[in-house]
Fold:
Amino acid sequence: MKMRGFTHYISGLAAVTFFPSLVADLRMGILIPVIAAAAAYFPDFMDFKFGKFLSRRDYEIDPAPWDEKKHYAPKIVKIGELSEANRYQFFALRGIVREVLTKGSGVLSYSVVKEDGTVETVSEEYKSVVFTLDDGTGRITVEAFGDDYRFFEEEFGKIEEGKEMLVFGYIDVDDEGKLELVVSDAPHPQGIADTIARAIEEAYREGERIVKIHNVRLPGDVYRRFWVHLDPPKREVRVEMGPIVTPGGVSIGGEVPEYRRYGVAKVGVPFIKTYPKPTRVDSFSGPEIAFRRSEFRGRKVVKDRFLPWHHGFSHSMTMGLIIAAVVFAFFKLIGYSHALDLALASMIGQWLHVFEDQLGFMGSNLFPPLTKDVIPGFKLGESGSGLTNFSTAWLMIALMIWNFNRFTQPRPIPVGDVELLLLLIWPSLIGFAIAVIKSFQLRREVSRLMDYYTNLEAFEEMEEVGGI
Amino acid sequence: MLPVSQLILWSLIGVVFGSLISWIPGFHIFNIMALLVAVFGVGSLMPVSAFPFFAIGSIVAYAYVSAISSVYFSVADESAVFLLFPTQRYLLLGRGHEAVMLYLIGAVTGTLILVLSAVFIFPKVLPPIYQATSPYITYFLTAIVVFMFMSEWPKEGDRGRGAGERLWLAWRQILGGIAVFFLAGILGFAVMNTNLLPSTSAYTRLTPMFIGFFGMSWVLLNILSNPPMLEQVVDDRVESSHYNIAKASFGGALGGTIAAIYPIITGGMGALIAGHMTSQRGDDAFIISQGVNRVIYYVGAFTLLFLPDLRLTRGAAAWLVSSVYTPKSYSEYLAAVGVILLSAGISFLFAYYLSKGIAKTFRVVHIKRLSYIVAVLLVGISYVLTGPMGVLVLFVSAAIGLMAAAFNTRRSYCLGGLILPVLISMTGHTGTFMHLLGLG
Structure:
């Protein structure tokens, strides 16, 4: 459970209200105590406004580079700019048809990854056209087949020499090592899978590799969704290209044909996954994943760490102490009479943030430098749970009203403290109770999945019996 | 109180007036009401005690029918704006009518929540809660502004070539947002505290500024960019779920209520808070929650003027009405609740059929032409209300509104034009700022 920003922030606002001196200041229009709310949000502020951009990237996977002016893919490139490094990336080319090489039909065979992870080979008849395109900087072979041929035919009609067109697809390399453009509406996932597999193998040898995976943004502020599955028992990385979705996650169609939906890359070293779900990449921005060599059950393995710049030192209790010291020193220096209370409120705000995040999956290293490792989260709920977010935020609102009432004479709400508190917090209590009940089911599911994702033996067993 | 027949008549006239105005991009019912009062005066048009009910009809109509302008007449050229609103995306997919339907589902739900709350919850719960929290309004307001800055999501930093470039691209947007807020704030401070605009425009002196920030910058973006006018599907079916509707309604009601009760906090700010609190996701949910939010924010805030034990003046329309007539009795409060229901029914039908008509004829007139006409009208309104200096304020504020678009930052930072001067005033620093800006 990763709480939303405002939930952390409001925790800081609520922390302030436990200090009568700060409440009195607020009543007089002194707004300095807002600092405590900023302190409560500070860990995410540092991570998402600085850490994210300053962090190292060893590999940058950009399946569909943006057009620099329009900020979406496909980018229109010159043929002369392309190289083998662009293999599987999604681009658009504008040029003139120079020669129609072949046009006809045949049988296409490709591999399909089924629900249970097994791979099946499928054959089907297809129509195709192959021609060369020239844009003045070079010449490239363009190939359209299968479902993409149907789309291509609808869009461009008959392909003739001398015809000018803007065509998009992914770059591939043919048997002779020459570049070609395969007409499609998405990048091929194989490039993503290959790079991640390479990063895992390098991390095993060198210690750490950080991979940045960019998302695929298309015209109309929509995104091509894809999933990255790390499958430790099979020692493979599978990438699945999905539908086009809105930033809100609603699918609007655009499923890719089966023959270019999957990319699979084998990994030659043992690795485990620490988060029991595939990584989904769609709107806003793509993730960074660190692969780190580590010990697991006495063996050398590679572990993944999702968003390595997140939940670092900023999300530790130690940081709370530093914040308290800085706030105290600064406000004492400028002569604020309640600097100590403000420092304590700021520290509590930041600690509440750490505690709230600790209820989820990721966990943090709580007391650096005394502790070195991340303490796993309590797994009380999934990321972005509306129920737990609301319950926490409501609890904070309730505490604020309760404190404001307690510290005002005569009391605006003439009810006893305990009675008022119960009247105010019951929605949160119900919300937390439901979350705890649901968390048992979630933990069972997570535990089952983690058994799979940390299974190092399965691969060796398969190797021994010749299963792979 | 007015006889019931009069009350219904003036409410209906309000609904018709509001409906005819509210679908036009850049027009805000508050501005048009101000224009009406400035040009004609209330007494010559209707009995003063009818004005609150005329206003309710107009505001309800605005809360419903403005969905048309935000769906069909809002710029949707992503080379001009980085992120599209869900409604704009629906329009690009030919599903503009579906977006209006989702909004109307939210608006109807919001109306029901508002009416039930107004009868059973507001009279008992609001007065004590408001009394306990109202001394801390500046705290909430400052906190929300700081949160808006801190939570700005950098849209472009991800693709810079090195760490330094990534950081710059990210912070360019954040700093741009802060600049927009403070520039808007300085303009607002000058408009409120100097004789830049004629003193005769007491109730409308902020109008040209707001028209510039939101209305004029909107139509200018329509003119400057080249949004495609795509064919629209006229189908009443919507893609959503009961769970999404319930969750969006809850979030929308929460955000709308916060914005309605506390001064200066707008519907958008309320929606930001409630969206985080309820962890809202999904385009359908967003549009539905907007419908709920806007009804509760606009209509709910105005209704508080009628609440006998509280009588809060929230929103420009409430200030305008209260300058003429303030409702006094509980029976007027209940009548207002009834009028909300009646007006909502009519506004729903108007918005529904108008959406169908516009969807069918969407490609007949390009939005650019409509935007040119609206731009001229907005200049005209500003001139009538505040004279030539008002037109100057309009252009300056429109430039600030366009700055927000250029930096890919939140348009709501323009609210600095209201928030900053109010915060300065509430904390007793107006004199200091006057000196600082060389204004006094």
Summary: The radius of gyration of chain A is 28 Å. The longest strand of chain A covers residues 90-113. Residues 5-52+312-453 of chain A form one domain. Chain A touches chain B through 60 residues (CB under 8 Å).
